[in-house]
Amino acid sequence: MRAFISGTGSFIPAGIRSNQDFATTEFYNEQKERIKVHTAEIIEKFQQITGIAARRYATDDLNASDMATQAAIAAIRDAAVDPETIDQMIVAHNFGDTHQHACQSEAVPSLASRVKGALRIRNPDCVAYDLLFGCPGWLQGLIQADAYIRVGLARKCLVIGTETLSRVIDPYDRDSMIYSDGAGAVVLEAQTAPAATNGILGAVSQSHTYGESQYISMGPSYRPSASNRQYLKMQGRKVYEFALRTVPAAMKACLDKNGIEINEIRKIFLHQANEKMDVAIIKAFYQLYGKQQIPDDILPMNIRELGNSSVATIPTLFDMVRKGRLPGHTLCPGDIVLFASVGAGMNINAVIYKLPN
Ligand SMILES: CC(C)(COP(=O)(O)OP(=O)(O)OC[C@H]1O[C@@H](n2cnc3c(N)ncnc32)[C@H](O)[C@@H]1OP(=O)(O)O)[C@@H](O)C(=O)NCCC(=O)NCCS
Fold this sequence. Notes:
Blueprint: E1 3-11, E2 15-18, H1 39-50, E3 54-57, H2 64-79, E4 88-92, H3 111-118, E5 127-131, H4 137-150, E6 156-164, E7 181-190, E8 199-207, E9 216-220, E10 230-234, H5 236-257, E11 265-270, H6 275-287, H7 303-306, H8 313-322, E12 336-343, E13 347-354
Helix pairs in contact: 2-3, 5-6
The structure holds coenzyme A.
Coenzyme A binds next to α1 and α5.
C-alpha cells in the first residue's frame, strides 16, 4: 500500500518584516557585548550570508494552531476529502501556542486537538496528536503518516507544520533575523489502485544527539539587562557544518535504498534554513555522485521573501510549487521529487516521492 499527497495548503502571515525594519535594533553577541559594527552593516552582511531579505510575522491575534487550522482548511479543500473521514491528524511544531508577549507557551490541549476542534470534526476515530522533532517535524509527520497507511492502520492523514518563531526569538541576537512564522499542510491518502508505483517511495531519518543535541537550544537573551526568559538560540556555524556533513549523505541513502538515480530527481524541496546553506547542501549532494554542476531549476526556494518558518517551510514551498505560485517552477504528473530537512535535535530526514500520474 502506497500513500500519495492529494491536497496541499498553507498559511503565510500577512505581516512582512523586511531587513530594513531591523535598522534601529541594537545587536549583542553571546558574551553579552554590544556588537560594535553599525546595524546597517550587520543587516547587509546578514542578507549576504543567508539570502534572506524579509520574513513573515503572525499578527497578535493569531497563534500557531490558528495558522495550522487555516492551512488545514486549504489542504482539505484541495484534496476534496470529507474531514470526518480523516484517520490521523499530526501537527508538527516546537513551541505550542505562544501568545504574543506571554512568557509561557501552551501545548495542553495539543495543537492537533485545537485544530481538530476548530475544524469541528466529530469523529472520535480521527486521532489528533502533536509531533516535536525540530524543523524536520513536518517531514517526520509525513513519514509517520505514510507508515500508518502502509500497514493499513489509516487511509487518510492530515499532516501540518506550524510555528510562530517570532515569539520565541531574542530580538538582540542577529541570528534571530533568520526566523519567520507560517503553517503548511498536506492530506496524505492511501492509493486506491492496487500495486501503485507512485506515492511515497521511501524515507530516511536520523537523530544525532551524542555531541550535537545542544547545537540548537534555548538560552537567555544576549542583552545584559534582559529578563530570565529563554529564547531560541543556535550555534550557527556548527549547525551549518553539521548540515553539510549529514544531510547530503542522508539524501543519497534515501535514493540508494529505493533504487532511484540522481538524474530521475526533478525537484528538491529542502527545508528553507538559509539560502547559502541550502545551496551548499545541494552542491555537496550532487558531488556525492561526481557531479560538479547542479541542474538550474532543481531547488525551488522562497526563503528570500518568507524566511525560515521551521516546520512550515517545506509544506508551504511544496504548496506554492504544486499550485504554480512560485515563478520558474512547475511539477508534472509522474515527477520524482526529494524532500529533506535538518534542525534541532539534531534531527535530519529525507523522503522520496513520485507524483501521481
Ligand atoms: C548563522 C550563520 C548565518 C552565520 O554565518 P557564518 O558564515 O557561519 O558566520 P561566521 O560566524 O563564520 O561569520 C562570518 C561573518 O558573518 C557575520 N555574521 C555571523 N552571523 C551573522 C548574522 N546573523 N547576521 C549578520 N552577520 C553575521 C560575522 O560577524 C562575520 O563577519 P566578518 O566576515 O565581517 O568577520 C550561519 O552559520 C548559518 O546559517 N548557520 C545555520 C543556521 C540555520 O540554518 N539554522 C536553522 C537550522 S533549522
